[in-house]
Amino acid sequence: MIRSITKQKAFEQILDLLDGFDRIFVMGCGTCATLCRTGGAVEVAEMGAKLLENGKVVTGHMVVPVACDELSHEAIEEHKDPLDASEAILVLSCAFGVQTLARQTRLAVIPGLDTLFVGKETGLGRFDEICSQCGSCIIGETGGICPVTACHKGLLNGPCGGTNNGKCEIDSDKDCAWTLIYMRLKEQGKLDLMRKHQEPRNHNVEPRPGKTRIPLD
To answer: In the β-sheet with 23-29, what is the strand arrangement from edge to edge?
Structure first.
């Protein structure tokens, strides 16, 4: 399952963001942040304890099932009293969740995490980016493997000169993306696609902030 991969901000940075706020409600996310161990029940409790040690009043805490879901307003209503007694909400979720919650309350909403990328868990405690959301997809010609994301250099026309025994020169523990693409296309009998020259691509196809409409007819 695709997740927003996050890491917790340095505690000193969180305290800086909370400067001027004394009464804090801590909120986590039961999906992505829980999976990343950055904003689940354990991390929310630990954060509350740290805030108390640093002179903050923790008015309450909770883990929203899905912080980026608009239904999170129901969870806010369930904790109306402690939230009314708060000056700010410290949110341990991805940036999408922070912005969703910010639209649902007049309190200051402070992010406790940094959002790194969209990815998936590929091993115990290991998360790999799988899509850069560049808006110019090439995977139909590379065996379903994205070189923009999987290659450290984002090369579109084969491996660099540093690949060694199928490993990446930047990360020797990582398989070279273009070796994987070669093997996949070979299995499919599509190695001729390796001969096609890929022109430079516009990775900002959709101007920021992105917005699109799906025809309903």
So the answer is: 57-64, 23-29, 88-92, 108-111
Burial (CB < 10 A; 0-12, 13-18, 19+), residue 129, is middle
**What are the CA-CA distances from residue 22 to residues 15, 77, 99, 213 (Å)?**
10, 22, 22, 43
pLDDT band per the 50, 70, 90 thresholds, residue 74: confident
Task: Name the 3-class secondary structure at 176.
Answer: coil
Q: How far apart are the C-alpha atoms of 27 and 144, rounded to whole Å?
A: 37
Peptide bond into 209 cis (omega under 30): yes
pLDDT tens digits along 115-168: 988 887 777 777 888 888 777 888 889 999 999 889 999 999 999 999 999 999
Amino acid letter for position 173: D
Question: Beta-carbon neighbour count of residue 186 at 10 Å?
Answer: 12
Q: Domain count of the chain?
A: 2
Determine the structural domain holding residue 100 and report its residue range.
3-116
pTM: 0.79
Same domain for 109 and 136, yes or no, is no
* Model confidence pLDDT, tens digit, residues 101-118: 988 988 999 999 999 888
